[in-house]
Amino acid sequence: MSTQQPWNHEEFEAKLREKGAAYHIHHPFNVMLNTGKATPEQIRGWVANRFYYQIAIPVKDAAILSNTPDREVRRQWIQRILDHDGYEITAPDGTTVRDEGGIEAWIKLGEATGLSREEIVDLRHVVPGVRFAVDAYINFARQRPWQEAVCSSLTELFAPKIHKERLANWPEHYPWIESAGLQYFRNRVSQARRDVEQGLAVTLNYFNTREMQERALNILQFKLDVLWTMNDAMANAYGVNK
Ligand SMILES: O=C(O)c1cc(C(=O)O)c2c(n1)C(=O)C(=O)c1cc(C(=O)O)[nH]c1-2
Questions:
Q1: ipTM (interface predicted TM)
Q2: Which CATH number fits domain 9-237: 3.30.230.40, 3.90.1560.10, 3.30.70.380, 1.20.910.10?
Q3: What pLDDT was estimated at residue 2?
């Protein structure tokens, strides 16, 4: 057991952010995608496989909702499910508000790359390594205390940069993908920032001894490994061009 003093919030947050060095933004398969070296086949392979992650996220968030007795947390956390699944809500006066949600936006991204809706949603292209890695994330959220599951979402600290990189580079390198198809990435930049604020607040407060803070870093590493392993599996299936 560690007998050291806990890091203060600033130090602890800095330790979490240091973990960005192991983010999948640095994986050779992602570097290939974001530097314009990928073939249409490789891009389609990535989009079709990442769809399995997209559909897992609201399931994972529903596990967190079901595990927390804290109503204030649930009030905020439910937004993530709406972000991905979309919603159609009719007020008592009959007015309806709808949003197609991130999963639908991801399907549109897939269609913009030349995949059919059917071959995306029936998961035929999802390779075993991606499936196992994503399932591990869902299982972790189902089985561990909800604060640990919240902590595991903190790879989102590093996500705005990867989305912005795609928005900056894909139109130049892959002009055959219609710009409207990239809407998912545009939406996520601000959504990820908001998610991170909430996830960080829970994590900084809950992991309040040095031993727990070290556990939080290991949890974040687990999630980084989920994303890294997905990229390994896709690199194995589709290859990496130098
Ligand atoms: O494209 C990416 O590289 C990337 C990474 C991550 C991430 O770091 O987990 C997420 C997303 N995108 C994303 O779009 C998203 O909605 C999301 C939710 C979560 C989460 O763990 O709750 N991660 C991510």
A1: 0.98
A2: 1.20.910.10
A3: 61
